[in-house]
Amino acid sequence: MNSSDLLITALLSMLPVSELRGAIPYAIIKNANPVFAYFYCVFFNSLIAPLFYLFISTFHKLMLKFKWYNNLFDKFITKARNKVKNGIEKYGYLGVMIFVAIPFPLTGAYTGTAGAWVLGLGKRKTILAVTAGVMISGLIVSLVLYFGIETFSFFTKKVSV
Q1: Residue 50, Cβ neighbours under 10 Å: how many?
Q2: For 127, what's the count of Cα atoms within 13 Å in the CB-facing half-sphere?
Q3: Contact 16, 106 (CB under 8 A)
Q4: Residue in 103, 98, 96 with CA at minimum distance from that of residue 19
Q5: Which positions ≥6 away from 45 have C-beta within 8 Å?
Q6: How confident is the model over 55-110, as pLDDT tens digits?
Q7: d(CA 8, CA 3)
Q8: Which residues, 6+ apart, have CB-to-CB distance to 136 below 8 Å?
Q9: Backbone angles phi, psi at 155, to 5 degrees
Q10: Residue 121: which residues within 8 A CB-CB, separation 6 or more?
Q11: pTM over the 0.90 mark
Q12: Rounded to an integer, what distance in angstroms lies between the CA atom of residue 74 and that of residue 55?
C-alpha cells in the first residue's frame, strides 16, 4: 500500500457511509496484510466516537441560544428518552456496543455515538462501548472477507437431499 492508499483507507474508515464495511475490503484489495488492515481501520474508525461526541456537544451548545431549537430539542429528547427508557436501563452501554458491532448499514460508530448522546449516556463509557463495538465489527468484516460467507455456517443447519 502506498501513502495515498493509506489515506483513502483512513478516510473510508471515518466516513459514515462506509466505515469498516468499506475500509477493510479496500485495504485488502490494495494488498494490505489483513491483520494490518484490521488494526489500521479499527484505529481510525474508533476516532469517530470522541470526535463526533465533541462536535455534537459543541454544536448543541451553540444552537441552544435559539429558542426554536431549544423547544424542538426538548420535545425530541424527552420523547426519545421516554420511548427507550426501559431498554436503556436494561442494556445501556452493552446495547450501544452490540448496536455498533453489527456491520449493517445505519449501524456503526456515528449512529451509536449519536444515539448514546441523545439518550444522555456518559461520554467516557460511550466512547469505550463504541470502541469495543468497532473492534467486534472489524473482526466480523475481516472474517467474512477472509473466509467468505461460510464464516456464518455455524448458524445454519446443513440439509442433505
Answers
A1: 16
A2: 12
A3: no
A4: 103
A5: 13, 14, 19, 20, 23, 108, 109, 134, 137, 138
A6: 988 998 899 888 898 888 878 877 777 776 676 677 889 999 999 999 888 889 99
A7: 9
A8: 97, 100, 101
A9: -85, -15
A10: 88, 92, 93, 96
A11: no
A12: 19
Q: Is 24 within 8 Å of 45 (Cβ atoms)?
A: no
pLDDT in tens, 110-134: 989 988 888 888 999 999 999 999 9
13-18: long-range pairs with CB below 8 Å, 24+ = 13/40, 13/41, 13/42, 13/43, 13/44, 13/45, 14/44, 14/45, 14/47, 14/48, 16/108, 16/110
Distance from C-alpha of 127 to C-alpha of 140, rounded to nearest angstrom: 20
Closest C-alpha among 24, 23, 5 to residue 15: 23
> Which amino acid does the sequence have at 35?
V
Cell numbers 485488502: residue: 28
Beta carbons of 147 and 154 less than 8 angstroms apart? no
3-state helix, strand, coil in the chain (%, to 5): 80, 0, 20
Please choose, from the candidates 62, 82, 63, 87, the residue with its C-alpha nearest in 3D space to the C-alpha of residue 73.
63
Amino acid symbol at 30: K
88, three cell numbers: 436503556
Residue whose C-alpha cell is 470526535: 51
